From TrEMBL:
<dbReference type="InterPro" id="IPR014001">
    <property type="entry name" value="Helicase_ATP-bd"/>
</dbReference>
<dbReference type="GO" id="GO:0005524">
    <property type="term" value="F:ATP binding"/>
</dbReference>
<dbReference type="InterPro" id="IPR027417">
    <property type="entry name" value="P-loop_NTPase"/>
</dbReference>
<keyword id="KW-0378">Hydrolase</keyword>
<comment type="similarity">
    <text>Belongs to the DEAD box helicase family. DDX31/DBP7 subfamily.</text>
</comment>
<dbReference type="Pfam" id="PF00271">
    <property type="entry name" value="Helicase_C"/>
</dbReference>
<feature type="domain" description="Helicase ATP-binding">
    <location>
        <begin position="199"/>
        <end position="380"/>
    </location>
</feature>
<feature type="region of interest" description="Disordered">
    <location>
        <begin position="35"/>
        <end position="145"/>
    </location>
</feature>
<dbReference type="Pfam" id="PF00270">
    <property type="entry name" value="DEAD"/>
</dbReference>
<dbReference type="InterPro" id="IPR011545">
    <property type="entry name" value="DEAD/DEAH_box_helicase_dom"/>
</dbReference>
<feature type="domain" description="DEAD-box RNA helicase Q">
    <location>
        <begin position="167"/>
        <end position="196"/>
    </location>
</feature>
<keyword id="KW-0694">RNA-binding</keyword>
<dbReference type="InterPro" id="IPR014014">
    <property type="entry name" value="RNA_helicase_DEAD_Q_motif"/>
</dbReference>
<feature type="compositionally biased region" description="Basic residues">
    <location>
        <begin position="687"/>
        <end position="709"/>
    </location>
</feature>
<keyword id="KW-0347">Helicase</keyword>
<dbReference type="GO" id="GO:0016887">
    <property type="term" value="F:ATP hydrolysis activity"/>
</dbReference>
<dbReference type="GO" id="GO:0003724">
    <property type="term" value="F:RNA helicase activity"/>
</dbReference>
Length: 759
């Protein structure tokens, strides 16, 4: 008699038998071995049991901020004399099934079916030879993974900010129509802490540097004084005055959102005209609007520079206000040049003006750099720490370095922050199951998933809409947002997600700053942010203005030191266990494995079943990716862009995020690729050929680049990692100025279409 145990061992053994030299272990899961859908439906007791378990797990997960107790991965500590080769072998193994489980399976069936199975296998093998894709080939998800280390949560005292005060807008000396508009149109009456401190300071004519947590109402803290001051100008402001206030924000969506806020505030003051300029819009139309006259000009930096250089009708002679919202991002490496052009243009023509910098993460370095455009500023920090007094000679760069490591950031008090440590191979399935958990098995969840590149967003979008949405109609609804989309589409998605009560937005950091999307319940950081400040902005898309929300950060075992980096900024996370997330697969039988798990099976058998189900889901993903050459190509592109983005982590985080720590084969699997693709080295330094036993480790991009340049590619441009980062930031936040090539192409195109560069 063949027991379940031996069947299982057979499954895992087959991994070994089929393992190829290049560490891509293969597990054949024949769809014929899976139960039919009618068989599946006959098992309501399992579902009920799991629904109950799930409820308990949910309660446990949220009742305490302590780690979830259930152990998942059986870990073995490395011995001192372990060689790297042994290290690979010594990963989590599938636990053997318990004797109880052995006795429970109708294994005789399996024995009886054996010859038939052999025939079927042969048939399938033949089919594979013919079509290349009839059989399901999936390398083992749960073997040869690095150990999941125990997470040490450093003790931190979270910075707390009180959101609301007891005072209201009517207590300030504002125009009654403005107060009425705030109450009736924007539905706000009580002042938030940042508004209480900032509005009077700005009304008194001071420059200001303002820091308060995400979602605390910073927009109104500058918009209200701007409107109050402009409506009182005599004689009345007119279009012909041109821009009186310039508001610079880093992304198009934020520009649109800020413009809409001004539109609402200006309802009673129709003679003051707001306008927005942003990359992706037609320059000609914008030029026409500028010529007509805009008094409050909201713009992304790149597009404003574009107009300064090419639009004669843009005149800054009357500008009284300059606002830099999300100032740390705007002053960041990628936009510094743009800002210099804007400041020079304003300084050369304008009268004296009030300047305001705002962000949830203004650091010492940024404020010091900002000193050049501020005049005796008042420093407002709701958490109480006076960040402007810092005297260290730091400069604003994308790598603030250790000088800013002690900088504390406030995150919303009602935000629950989690981290899950997932080996690379399992990342894709883990994300998918998490989404299923929140969107299929719980209701009214609205998720934002952050990914590091546009190509990766596109890849996940097409994978999830094709595989997950198809399997789980109608509960799953995906949207995507990234810098490579056409502006109309971006705006449409932004509006759609804003009004939707549920759904999943897959996006890059283009949605990380300032966006006020209502009712977002979960923020998922599928790829870790490049800085603690970016972490704060990403999670800040939920739990806004005193609301509740949760966030989940994905880290690989090699990246867990990022938890300490966040703790250095007083950010503390609770651990969510991988198995707890994957156990959602037991909520129904969509991805049922071929194991004979049933309600009375042991917990080890249950773990085995969960792993099998995860493998079935991964197989579906891989089948989709490998279903046609185009989708393979898309997955490769996504992988390549992910690797490229990985090289841009700042120097002080390289000990955590270094491309050399990535395993190319495992990373490829998280893009649904069965094998590590060849030839990824040119842009990323990735190495997929097999020069030695460490063949799947990715080599240093710098070394690879040197090697390449030494040979045939002497003419190719060499980029420093910092330059690559600027390139990525600029393309991602592109607000009018595109890369050199794209610019040339566009110029050519414009010339052909007869559009004038100059007015
Ligand atoms: N006084 C108030 N009372 C109630 N709601 C308010 C008040 N002020 C602002 N809000 C609302 O709070 C939300 C968040 O405001 P806002 O976008 O200005 O936050 P923020 O501090 O700029 O966030 P971020 O740092 O993420 O950009 C908005 O929906 C806004 O309408």
């Amino acid at each position: 008699m063949v027991s379940v145990c031996s069947l299982s061992v057979c499954v895992w053994d087959r991994c070994f038998i089929m393992s190829s030299a290049d560490d891509q272990l293969c597990l054949n899961i024949s769809s014929s071995l899976l139960p039919s859908s009618s068989q599946r439906r006959k098992r309501p007791t399992t579902q009920q049991r799991w629904a109950r378990k799930k409820q308990i797990a949910e309660k446990r997960r949220f009742s305490s901020s302590e780690d979830v107790k259930r152990p998942f991965v059986k870990q073995r500590k490395l011995q001192h004399n372990d060689t790297p080769e042994e290290e690979v072998q010594m990963q989590t193994e599938a636990p053997p099934l318990s004797p109880a489980a052995e006795n429970q399976s109708p294994t005789a069936d399996v024995t009886k079916r054996k010859p038939e199975k052999k025939k079927k296998k042969k048939k399938e093998k033949d089919a594979v030879t013919e079509t290349g894709r009839s059989s399901i080939k999936t390398s083992s998800l749960f073997k040869h993974n690095p150990d999941i280390p125990a997470i040490h949560r450093p003790v931190v005292s979270q910075v707390k900010e009180k959101i609301f005060t007891t005072e209201s807008f009517s207590d300030l000396q504002l125009h009654p129509h403005l107060v009425a508009t705030l109450n009736k149109v924007l539905n706000v009456s009580t002042l938030t802490s940042v508004q209480k401190q900032t509005i009077p300071a700005l009304l008194s004519g001071r420059d200001a540097v303002v820091r308060s947590q995400t979602g605390s109402g910073k927009t109104l803290s500058y918009a209200v004084p701007v409107v109050q001051s402009l409506q009182s100008v005599q004689p009345k402001v007119s279009r012909s005055d041109g821009p009186l206030a310039v508001v610079i924000v880093p992304t198009r969506e934020l520009a649109l959102q800020t413009f809409q806020t001004f539109q609402k505030l200006l309802r009673p003051f129709t003679w003051i005209v707001p306008g927005v300029l942003m990359g992706g819009e037609k320059r000609k139309a914008e030029k026409a609007r500028l010529r007509k006259g805009i008094n409050i000009l909201v713009s992304t930096p790149g597009r404003l520079v574009d107009h300064i250089k090419h639009t004669l009708s843009i005149a800054f002679s009357a500008v009284r206000w300059l606002i830099l919202d999300e100032a740390d991002r705007t002053l960041d490496l990628g936009f510094e040049k743009d800002l210099t052009v804007i400041l020079n243009s304003l300084n050369s023509t304008g009268p004296s003006r009030q300047n305001v910098l705002l962000s949830a993460t203004l650091t010492h370095g940024v404020t010091r750099l900002a000193d050049v455009c501020l005049n005796d500023p008042v420093s407002i920090s709701v958490s109480g720490s006076d960040f402007s007094d810092h005297t260290a000679a730091t400069a604003a760069t994308s790598d603030p370095g250790p000088a800013s490591q002690s900088e504390s950031f406030a995150v919303p008090e009602a935000l629950k922050q989690f981290v899950v440590v997932v080996p690379s191979k399992i990342r894709l399935v883990c994300l998918a199951v998490f989404i299923l958990d929140k969107c299929k098995f719980s209701q009214n969840n609205k998720l934002i998933v952050f990914v590091s590149s546009c190509e990766a967003v596109e890849f996940l979008y097409s994978l999830f809409t094709s595989v997950l949405s198809a399997n789980h109609k109608p509960s799953l609804h995906f949207l995507r947002l990234h810098g490579n989309m056409k502006q109309e589409e971006r705006s449409e998605v932004f509006q759609q997600f804003s009004v939707s009560p549920s759904g999943v937005l897959l996006c890059t950091d283009v949605a990380a700053r300032g966006l006020d999307l209502p009712q977002v319940t979960w923020i998922v950081q599928f790829t870790p942010p490049t800085a603690a400040a970016e972490y704060v902005h990403r999670v800040g898309r939920t739990a806004r203005i005193g609301g509740r929300g949760s966030s989940l950060l994905f880290l690989t075992p090699a990246e867990t030191a990022f938890i300490t980096e966040l703790a250095n900024h007083n950010i503390s996370l609770s651990e969510m266990k991988l198995l707890d997330i994957l156990s959602t697969l037991m909520m129904d039988d969509t991805y049922r494995g071929r194991g004979k798990y049933h309600s009375k099976s042991s917990s080890k058998a249950l773990e085995q079943e969960i792993r099998e189900r995860a493998t079935v889901l991964q197989t579906e993903f891989e089948n989709f990716v490998h279903s046609d050459p185009e989708s393979v190509q898309n997955a490769k592109k996504a992988l390549q862009s992910f690797l490229r983005a990985y090289t841009t982590y700042p120097a002080h985080l390289k000990h955590i995020f270094h491309i050399r720590f990535l395993h190319l084969g495992h990373t490829a699997k998280s893009f649904g690729l069965r094998d590590a693709p060849q030839g990824l080295s040119s842009a990323t330094g990735a190495h997929s050929k097999k020069p030695n036993h460490n063949k799947n480790r990715i080599r240093s991009p710098v070394k690879e680049q040197k090697k390449k340049l030494g040979s045939s590619q002497a003419g190719e441009k060499r980029f420093h990692p910092a330059q690559r980062e600027v390139g990525l930031i600029r393309s991602e936040f592109s607000s009018g100025l595109d890369g050199a090539d794209a610019k040339k192409k566009k110029k050519k195109k414009r010339k052909m279409s007869g559009e004038e560069e100059e007015e």
